[in-house]
User: Fold this.
Amino acid sequence: MRKIRETRHRLVEGGRLLGFGTYRLPFRETGLKELNVFPRLEGWLPRRLLVGLSRLRLKQWQHFAVINPSHYLGMVVFDAGFLGFSFIYHLDRERGVVVEHHRTGPPGSAEVAESAWRGECQFVASGYSMRFTNRMEEGRHRLAFYASSPGKPTFSGEVFMLEDPERYQPLVAVSPFSPQRPLYTHKNLAPAEGRVNLGRALLELRPERDVCLIDEHKAFYPYRSFWRWATFGGYTEDGRLVGVNLCQNNIAEDWEYNENCLWVDGKIRLLGPARFGFSEARPLEPWFVKTLDGQVDLEFLPSGERAQRMGLGPVYSDFHQPFGIFRGSLGSGNDFLRVEGMFGLCENHVSRY
Assistant:
């Protein structure tokens, strides 16, 4: 059974990782850019060079998912090391219409905060600005954006995710690809408020109705990697705030190290390893997601997807993010919950980079 550990100020001190496990709060500083993930080359190459090469292996992003009964907004600032990337897309859930704006830039074009506790992310290009201001000590993240593309409605707005960590317990996990290659992630579900202009339409977000999911991620992925991911969040008919985060990836010891959890009214429950059943060739067919501890049994019914495939020499990425509705069961005994009609996402990503 995983236990939640207290968080120190820094994850990496003196070039060494504090430890793997699940933590109560995000680290104020991660220090991951100080790690050497090539220990076999120590003594052969200067440490400064090895740390610099290690930074090229670091993939980091902040992603926010804003869920409203009639609308969905997904947005990201992503630093892949060899390039920067950002997107915002809107799904009109009633009409099934998706509009996306995105930009790609050279190394350094995507700025990702050292920590979502306090820090800024941004990606700025012609006709495009995505800025995240993280202030968890004040209980909020500010998402400010402007995005235009030829032939598409312009998006602009300001959204606040009200992530007070004392009221809404975050999932903070540090997992090992190997003893020298950590994956750090912070995820949470909290109410959202703000105003968004979607072309000529105005969307007003209210915290008693609308929610936001954060995905902060920093990882030294191996060259060949994969992940399968499922998440949803929202209010039930009786007013409870419920969400899940479920992932299966390259982490081998996923009984001990995973990022799987359930949130109910701001309280976190840790879960066992997650397993996914779906067709890679037909990702819009139903998905089935379970945990090996028997606490999750979900069916996911996609209604569409965001997909992207990239191949350039040794670099390859095949990404599918279907969106749709979850139904099934969570928990057991007195903690049992029936889920019906919860909007969320699944992902299947296979990469070489």
Notes: The longest helix spans residues 47-55. The chain has a mean pLDDT of 96.
